[in-house]
Amino acid sequence: MRAIFKYFVLCSIFCAIIIPAAFSQAKVAKVALLDVDNINRDPRYDYLSGMISGILLYDLSRTEGISIIDRRSLDDVLKEQELMLGDMSAKDQIKIGKLLGANHLLRAGFVYLGDEVMVNLTLIDVETSKSIVLSRRGRTENTIHELAEDLVVHLTGQEVVFQSKETDRSIISLKDEKPGSIDIYCNLIRAEIILDGEFTGYSTGDSTKPFTINSVKPGKHLVKVVLSEFGVVKLPEITFHDWEQEVNVLPGKNHVLRATINTYSYQIANLIDIFRKTIEVTYEEGKSQTSGEYPLSVTDRTGTKIPVLIKLNASLKDETVTFNMVLTFNNREKTNWDFVWKKGEKLDHEFEAGIVKCNVRASGFSPNSARFDIRLKRTDIAYDEWKKKK
After folding, report:
1. Are 308 and 376 in contact, with CB atoms under 8 Å apart?
2. Highest CATH level, class, for 2-156
3. HEC string of the chain?
4. In terms of C-beta density within 10 A (0-12 exposed, 13-18 middle, 19 or more buried), how is residue 381 classed?
């Protein structure tokens, strides 16, 4: 009986010591912090990424039941898998988590709201792929400590306190507000330069000498160059706009913009003319034959790339050229043209298929050769179109 009692006592001690330890070990939450995203994309607040990351990792690392996977291990796995944090899909994230041996992945992002910062945490369960989002808004370190407290509750069920009077310090401190500048090189003479909707001056007209905008507040700004009949044509829809570019001005930095602008008429002409070629037919030793195929393509206003094909056969005899030309559009619409051109006669003929038109025009005649020009152009664009739509 005494032996049985001793056995029972030993079993109780074993259960009291070994089993809880194993259970505790099994419940350790292994967490990998992926990144802290500056959602504003304003470099003045990049310092908050390091601050948020540092506070979260410090709070979690001093919590029983939570293990933090070090950054070096994460970087090694990303390099091995040829992945980048910003480009990872949800599937990639889970894959990285499993390779790291993590139970949870943590992503953070913040938005600067003037006098406060909103911080969001996304906690992803590697096993189930489910996620929860935690969010807090404030202006002090305690905002982040409060988020860390919420996080610990979800990970371990424990209620902890990380906030204190000592950590009630502002995290909003824009230390570097030194203005920047923008140099604009432009080929236009006296074009208006607009910064964020406000006129700032005129372009110099010398592409080697810039117009400089000084005392520009750090952050994102929109620069426009405006001159009647000049600008940019956006494709494939073919719309007409003033030249503009967004620039993210960094504190104390100079930024260079190059605005190369043409007239709308010049740009439209280049869009209309899609093919030019001079063909020569020669007559030697009693025979002559010239043939060729010219595969092209044209992108319509919806962005669809459409194949175009020109087939040509031409022969010269007794100062007479006999043509056969076929124009095919989108492998379906086809126009076949036969023509006889004699020396001294006019040659200026057009035929079309789909949204393209082919023009054949005389170039020159000599005793044993004849030359003619082939020109292909679009019919869905008008030379004066910009006047109607600008």
Report:
1. yes
2. alpha beta
3. CHHHHHHHHHHHHHHHHHHHHHHHHHCCEEEEEEEEEECCCCHHHCHHHHHHHHHHHHHHHCCCCEEECCHHHHHHHHHHHCCCHHHCCHHHHHHHHHHHCCCEEEEEEEEECCCCEEEEEEEEECCCCCEEEEEEEECEHHHHHHHHHHHHHHHHCCCCCCCCCCCCCECCCCCCCCCEEEEEEECCEEEEEEECCEEEEEEECCCCCCEEEEEECCEEEEEEEEECCEEEEECCCCEEECEEEEEEECCCCEEEEEECCEEHHHHHHHHHEEEEEEEEEECECCECCEEEEEEEEEECCCCCEEEEEEEEEEEEECCEEEEEEEEEECCCEEEEEEEEEECCCCCEEEEEECCEEEEEEEEEEECCEEEEEEEEEECCCCCCHHHHHC
4. middle
Does domain 185-260 fall under CATH 2.60.40? My reply is yes
The CA-CA-CA angle for residues 350, 319, 322, to 5°, reads 40
Question: Could you report the per-residue pLDDT of 90-133, keeping only the tens digit for each?
Answer: 787 888 888 888 889 899 999 988 789 999 999 999 888 899 99
CB 284, CB 315: distance < 8 Å: no
CA neighbor of 308 nearest in space, from 277, 266, 265, 353: 353
**Is the pTM value of this prediction over 0.90?**
no
Report the DSSP beta bridge partners of residue 57. Answer: none
Strand partners for 353: 356
Closest CA to 318 of 286, 357, 280: 286
Domain ranges of the chain: 2-156, 185-260, 272-385
- In this structure, what token pair is assigned to residue 145? 């400590």
Residue count of the chain: 390
pLDDT per position as a tens digit, 306-340: 999 999 999 988 888 998 999 999 999 999 999 89
